[in-house]
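Technical note accompanying the year-one report. For the benefit of new consortium partners, we illustrate the data format agreed upon in the data management plan: each record pairs a sequence with a structure-token string. No post-processing was applied to the example shown here.
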Amino acid sequence: RRVDENDDITSFFLQNEEVLKVAKNIYEQLDVAESDTSQPRLLLVKGNEEKGQQPFISAILNQPLIRSSSVIIEANRCFHDDPFYCFIPIVTRILLSHIVVRERIQRLHLRYKRSSVLGSLISNDALRAPAHRFGTKLVADELAPFLPVINDFLYKGFPLMKSTAEAKKLKDKEKIEKCVEVLSALITNFFKLEKKRGIISIPMFDSIDEHSKKLLRHIFASDSTLLVVGGVDDSSPLENDESEDGVEAYLRPFIGDTITSQVDIVFLNIMDKQSSFDLFSLVLRRHFPREVQGLSENDEVKDKIMEHCEGMVHVTAELAHTFCTQARKERENNGQEFNLSSSLIEFLGRTPSSSEELIAFRFDKMNAEEQMLLKIASVAGFDQFSFSQNLLETVLLALSRDDQEQIIDMSTVDEDSDEPLEGGIPTSIGGDVGVPMNIGAPDSVKNYEYMFQGSFFEETLESLVEQKFLVEINVEMSDLASMDSVMYRFRNTHEQSVINELMLNDQKQRTHFEVAMYYQSIHGRESGESPSDSDDVSGSLSTDITSIPTTNWQLFHITALHYDLADAHLPALLQYYESSTNLASLGMRDGAHGRLLSAYLMLEKMLHDATALDVDVDETAEQRQQIASQMVKIIGNKDLSDVLQGITKEHLRNVFDGDIVAFKTILSMLIKFGQSVGTIEHEGYKFGSELYLQAILLVLLVLDDDAFGNLTSNLESFPTETNIQTVKQREIPEVDNSMEFDSDTFGSDNFSSLDFVMDDDDLAISFPAFSGLLTFYRDSPIGANQVQETFLANLFVAVTQEANEMIHVLRTKCILSHLYLKHGDIVKALEECEGIMDIYEPDAYSLQLVNTYGMDWPLICVGTMASTYLFRGQFTAAQRSIDFLTKQMQVIDEFASSTKVMSRGTVSSYYLRLFDLPRAYEISSGIAATQYGYFFKEHGTLQETLAGKEYSLQKKEAFADSDGSLDLLSILSSGNFDQVEQKRSMLRQSAETLCDRGVEAIQAAICQAEVRNLESSPASAEVLGKQLQYCQAGLIYLNQTLSQNDANNHERRKNYLICLHQKAHLLFWHHTILQRFREDFVNDSVNDLLGLEGEEMHQLRECLIECDELSKKYDYLYMQLLVGKSYIDLKLDGVDGEELIKSAIEKLTLPDRTVAEELLTRIDT
């Protein structure tokens, strides 16, 4: 076996005093762990490669007393942010210890005999270890159906675990959480089965990805006796004099709330001169056991070694190995005349002192073939990425083409072919991107083909391993699915970086491009038919399949990186976007967001480069640019950036090389990035709106002349109009209901790369940009004015007319309905909503709407208008809308559309408003238990909580004195409870717009329910104090929403009125409770936190008066009824209350009067 450098260092550390001390401590903790299974422990070794951190950890784990008493599994090094990457070898060993998994691998191997992943698993040492007895469970029964979720995250889609219906039904957002739960159970259960203490070694503990951190927190919350040994970098804040709070704060993301007494830390230092010499001598002793004896007294050698290596462990071992390689050759040549001491002194005298120079020195000693191959490897293996032998072979062949300087005429090439091209860069991936075609190879190896004769190539590659530049790795631990059975990675990043810097920039770009082409060429081979989940082996399947198809997000990403580094911006953008799409399908929103950002940065470079082009722009194109820019300026209410001001259709045609399909993909990327920014980033609506505006501009620039002419003629006079009522009405086109939406309509078959225009059929791609920007304008504090909104809305209506598809008609009706509502034309808003109910069919449109616009907006709109009908006292119409929603909820697939669960919250709130509490409770039950997240989940969960508490109170069943996980009283201890946050999240504002009340209003209502619930408790100062706290918390929540700058605008007035009404009742409770306290508990103190004592009744009247005035002004007869009832119930003025109720009822239709009278009766009960 080849002796590895790390083996020497580990051997050196085996007798290290600190290692022995740590190992003894671990062993002595075993007895404690067996009696106390409350929590795993953590041992951290702080240092770096220079201090020998990894060999130090290995030396601890290789101590005989540790190995004999523990089950040790080592994690992978954390090279990238791939989810759970470091846990792959751990999980693989666990799975392979079970007979069922072993049998499945054997069956798959019969079918896919040349699969590299299967080959690697078949040769895994874990298969030769004793298996757990048949029937042993991997995890508990309730988790067993979800084991397949690990396939996509750890094995890149390789079907190591057989698929199940339960796993397939998981929504994207559920997958990560379920995977964490399954992996934690797998690991903790495995060590329990082994009946020995488990030790997991994580070399780069502080570099693990966010998902692995979540997994560790889950593990550390278990009752396992596990010990985790991790390496952390010197930059981590774990110094001896650090405060305990600082250490806890640093470790909390990794281990949660584990107490620091469960954590031990070891600090490593640079070696001193004697230790450096001892390590150097240990390496020499392997090769020169007799000759090394006389070196111990040579101070000159010790000084030179310290001067060269500066006490750095790996540099010392590396220098020793370099000397041994040369000294062995000298001994072979000189025989008895060889003198180790003099040879070593001479070597140290001529060897460069810096590590960079030493690496270059070693490189210069290599032959030309090794140098060439190592250069290619330094490009393929940048940033610690793994690479395959097949890749190196393919790139080397590409670089040896005779026609290296030639760019192929792509008009003669089949763009649909997956065959690699013989030189040149295809138009389909960006045309002539200026990638240099020469890598600066020595004349002796201008033609590399001879390297593939016999075993020459393999021997050259093996020599790079022997010289310790490269290391072999297992296929399942590589960065992507490979066509090879052998994968490699640079031994350390420093050596890779130094070798890479020996290349010229054009050489690197050329090689990066060829590497990207190689990876893109295997996309097709990775996207074929997936292996069957059946356990039966089909004889019809070919046994010479090289690899089983896998998820491609990593493959797309690494392809994009290499195109990016080759300055091939368009193909890099397309690959980043594909990677994002794959990540989104796994529920990895943050990862998908990062890839979208990378794609957008590529677009920015493309547009910047486009403005620098010398392009002939005719008068028509220039005029188009001016008109489009003016339209976007009106929508955005500001000037375009300098780059966008200079972009014309001709610039875009040039930079996209006439590829309209790629251009449309860019539009989709911009829109998805806008959606992602708006939901993930703080105040993301700002940048998100910029992205939507950019997409709209690009559409207007490339739209064909006829379609653009139609738009401008329809909107010619509109920019001067400021009121939506004066905008000329547009007829909604008649739609052929037999036509089905087909996203493939927008495929490449419908376009010619020579005709760089978007026609009417292409416009649908851009619709989510219009819709998303209107949503930002409606729900965010972006401050859009009426001109912006109305112009954008009517432009959206105009462009959707061209598409003539019902889902877009439905979406524009929703937009217009909300816009009418926002600007106070409630009648027109309700008319548009009625039109929606006339044409909506859930089976035909629901999923299309969700896929195109993110939500089933027609149902959201109907829910909004149902509450509007209710507040206007049009109870019959409101019930018709609610019945419509209820009917649609019965046919919508909840797993495909979160609109169903959102609608349950809407309907529940409606029945709460009618005080029909049993129905409100029934329909809301289960919202909080929904496993997947969605935008309105917080709102829906609060709604369910409120409905449950109100129903309990109606039945006179007291509930536990607790708001559960809501922790509503925590706001009282915040230092800024009296401050109003004007830039709230979009959820807060959306809820107040789309529902009858927002998040803060529901929180306040729950507080009021808690106050009423405590009325059933025996009177005491403590109970009254708790009631007062709930009053104070509720009033603070209400103040947050009532004090918003736009709280009383048309679209949020329902929430505003409800909050005024709730505030009046909470003020009454505040007054009553304080009065009781002063009378019954004179000696007890009370905290009037808000300073309201004595002012409650005055403020209460002001709230009800304002509520009454607004209700009369805007014909909100429902609120007029509630105000009148409050005057009576709070004993303020019974006569005025009766008069308000009578006045409101007289304005109602006869059917609505019946509902109103029933409502008043229910309030009394």
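Partners are asked to follow this layout when depositing records. The beta strands are 41-47, 70-74, 197-202, 227-233, 263-267, 387-388, 470-473, 487-490.
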